[in-house]
Design brief:
The protein has 274 residues and is mainly beta. The protein has one domain: Jelly Rolls (Sandwich). The chain has 2 helices and 24 strands. It has helices at 12-15, 20-27; strands at 2-7, 28-29, 37-43, 49-54, 60-62, 77-83, 88-92, 95-99, 104-107, 114-118, 122-128, 136-138, 144-148, 157-163, 174-180, 186-187, 192-193, 197-204, 212-218, 221-227, 231-235, 242-245, 250-257, 266-267. The chain has a 7-stranded mixed sheet with strand order 1-3-4-11-6-9-12, with no helix packed on it. The longest helix is centred in the first third of the chain and has 8 residues, at 20-27. The chain is globular and about 55 Å long. It starts with a strand and ends in a 7-residue tail after the last strand.
C-alpha cells in the first residue's frame, strides 16, 4: 500500500500567523512507519520526498508515484534509504542489499523499482537528480565521523555523514544522522540557516515517554514543535532547525538544494535568537 501526502511551500510571513495546529499541519510529518505500508510526503521545498517503508514480513515495492510525473520514482531522481529498525533488505536493479540498523543504501537515478523486505524500518529520502551515480551500501564504519560539542554544554554528539562529498558523490542529496552521548540533548546549537538548501529531520530512537522540542522559524521570531519518536520535520530554507530532548535521541538530517557543501551555512548568534 502506497500513500502520498503533499506539503506546499510556506513563506516566513505566512508562517508567523500559524497556531500550533497550523505549524504541525505544514511542517511536522507523523505516521511514516506503519506495518505493511509505504508512506511518502512530497515537499515542494526543493521537491524532496521523505517517507517510510515497513515490510512487516512481506515485500513492498516502490515504483510509480503520481506526484513525480514519471513512470518510475527514480526516472529523474536519486534516493537514500536508512534502516532504523531490525535487519532487512532493499532490492533494486537486480541486486539485493542487506541493511542492518544504521546503514544506508544510496540508489542512483534510473535504477528502477525499489523493493523492501525483512524486518527493517526504512526511512526513504529522494531528490531530483541530473546525473547517475552507482548504487552503494554504506556502513557506519564507512561514514565520515565528526565529533562535536561537550558534556558541559549538553551537546556532546557524533555526526555520521553518509551521502556526503567526503564519502561518495551524489547530485544534490546530502544526508546522515547524529547520535548523542549520555546526558547531552541539544542538537545544532548554536543554530544556523542556509537559504540555498532546505532540510528535513527525522527523530528516532526516542523513548516513547520522552519528547524532542524542535525549534524553527526566523531567528528573530522562533516557534517550536513537540516531536515524538519517528516523526519528521520539514525545515524551509529560511528557518532555523535545532532541538532539545527530554531524553536521549538520534536524528537523521537530509538536505536538497543548490549545492552539496555541508559547511555552507549562515550561523546565528545566540544573541540574535528571539
Amino acid at each position: 500500500m502506497l500513500t502520498v501526502d503533499t506539503r506546499y511551500a510556506v513563506d516566513p510571513e505566512t508562517a508567523k500567523g500559524f497556531d500550533t495546529a497550523g505549524l504541525r499541519r505544514n511542517f511536522q510529518v507523523a505516521g511514516l512507519f506503519l506495518p505493511g505500508e509505504i508512506r511518502l510526503t512530497y515537499a515542494h521545498y526543493d521537491r524532496l520526498i521523505l517517507g517510510g517503508a515497513v515490510p512487516n514480513g512481506q515485500e513492498l515495492t516502490l515504483d510509480h508515484v503520481k506526484e513525480c510525473g514519471t513512470d518510475s520514482i527514480l526516472e529523474r531522481r536519486e534516493m537514500a534509504v536508512l534502516n532504523i529498525g531490525a535487519p532487512g533488505t532493499v532490492a533494486v536493479g537486480g541486486e539485493s542489499h542487506a541493511l542492518d540498523k544504521g546503514e544506508v543504501l544510496y540508489i542512483g537515478r534510473g535504477a528502477g523499482p525499489v523493493t523492501f523486505a525483512g524486518d527493517g524500518r526504512f526511512y526513504i529520502l529522494s531528490a531530483p537528480a541530473h546525473s547517475t551515480f552507482p548504487t552503494r551500501r554504506i556502513t557506519i564504519d564507512e561514514a565520515n565521523r565528526v565529533d562535536l560539542g561537550a558534556a558541559k554544554t549538553a551537546n556532546e554528539r557524533t555526526i555520521y555523514q553518509f551521502v556526503h562529498p567526503e564519502v561518495m558523490e551524489s547530485c544534490q542529496l546530502v544526508m546522515g544522522y547524529t547520535m548523542f552521548h549520555g546526558g547531552s540533548v541539544w542538537n545544532t546549537m548554536p543554530c544556523h540557516v542556509h537559504d540555498r538548501r532546505m532540510e528535513a529531520y527525522l527523530y528516532f530512537d526516542v523513548d516513547p515517554a520522552q519528547r524532542v522540542f524542535h525549534f524553527m522559524g526566523k531567528p528573530e521570531e522562533t516557534r517550536h514543535l513537540v516531536i515524538q519518536n519517528e516523526e519528521a520535520v520539514i525545515s524551509p530554507p529560511w528557518s532555523i532547525h535545532c532541538g532539545a530532548g527530554t531524553g536521549r535521541y538520534s536524528f537523521c538530517w537530509a538536505m536538497a538544494g543548490d549545492n552539496v557543501d555541508f559547511r555552507d551555512m549562515d550561523m546565528v548568534g545566540m544573541e540574535e535568537l528571539r
